[in-house]
Amino acid sequence: MNSHTKYLTFNTHKKREYLNITAEVEMAVREAKIREGMVLVSAMHITAGVFVNDNESGFLKDLDDFLERLAPEDAFYRHHQTGESNGDAHLKNIVVHHQVILPVTKGVLDLGPWQQVFYAEFDGQRAKRLIIKVMGE
Amino acid sequence: MNSHTKYLTFNTHKKREYLNITAEVEMAVREAKIREGMVLVSAMHITAGVFVNDNESGFLKDLDDFLERLAPEDAFYRHHQTGESNGDAHLKNIVVHHQVILPVTKGVLDLGPWQQVFYAEFDGQRAKRLIIKVMGE
Amino acid sequence: MNSHTKYLTFNTHKKREYLNITAEVEMAVREAKIREGMVLVSAMHITAGVFVNDNESGFLKDLDDFLERLAPEDAFYRHHQTGESNGDAHLKNIVVHHQVILPVTKGVLDLGPWQQVFYAEFDGQRAKRLIIKVMGE
Lengths: 137, 137, 137
Fold this sequence. Notes:
The structure is a homotrimer. By secondary structure, chain A is an alpha+beta fold. Chain A is built from 3 helices and 8 strands, in the order E-E-H-E-E-H-H-E-E-E-E. Chain A has one domain: Jelly Rolls. In chain A, the strands form 2 sheets. A 5-stranded antiparallel sheet of chain A has the order 1-8-3-5-6, covered by helices on one side. A 3-stranded antiparallel sheet of chain A has the order 2-7-4. In chain A, strand 5 and strand 6 form a beta hairpin. The longest helix of chain A has 14 residues. Chain A is elongated. The relative contact order of chain A is 0.40. Chains in contact: A-B, A-C, B-C. At the A-B interface, strand 4, helix 2 and strand 5 of A face strand 3, helix 3 and strand 8 of B.
């Protein structure tokens, strides 16, 4: 069994951003030199997510509207009694989830034609880390 | 390490359907001839999901109502400016997620007594693919 | 490839509870004696979840409020026609998800500084099981 681990760091301009990281994941798979296996792509923060969907700007705005509707930035959160102001980002993380696991077949990422991997930042403007771990043979 | 990969294709009669695919996943596990490991079950489309829950028709209708309430078919979606009409299906995919990873113990799928694996179609009536990848030893 | 499997059983005092199980997952990783790999942490019930987030009591109450707002305990559920009364717990399970997969690097759980693993009970006051499966080398 081979494994290969990489860390990416993001520092977004805006508080919320959705970044297509498919090329970075594909590169990690090539570096791992496996034929068959899986890749774990996981945010290392509790206010960021990882998901697979469409690289279409309208959809990405729909998603942001949807998450803001479910857990609005300016709502009341008990979490703010700690001095924090990112209660919404914690709940957006719960909805989107912080990780995906992707199949590797014949040496390449085995995604459908429209599937792209995204890092979802919900509380940015500071350095945030993500781990990519490839396992297989 | 052994691995075994299968693709299933679904072409549902209705736009939205929830299909119990537990038997197909169990068969892939048997074919993989592993004792200990994991199975990834992942939709290859951005308008379909995979989840584990109860094979009870009332619950499956509750789930469909719930997803339609969160992301209604006839709401406004920026994604529709591309000519698409499945903006709701993209958001339903985000809520349900497109994949699960299941444990294999002593050669069989190690699920709880009521856990069944479902393929969730949110934009059907056309051929859609799913990947099952078993890894273990 | 090594693998190591453990089962935990929970019997919560309240119907809904959120239990920090990070120490139990870390112990399973140590017992597995792997350097590089992944751990699957998965509820074996359809009315319980597993998630990664902040060990902060305000956030955990925000999460409970959020899930109760999305799928209230006292709403109408078709699932209740079977005699069950936990329709809300099934939908809360869908939102939170029943599993996570975590990276293991250099022999330890490779989480970010604030990431903790939680078992989310949505229909407790009875024995419920969870599986931890470590795979790697």
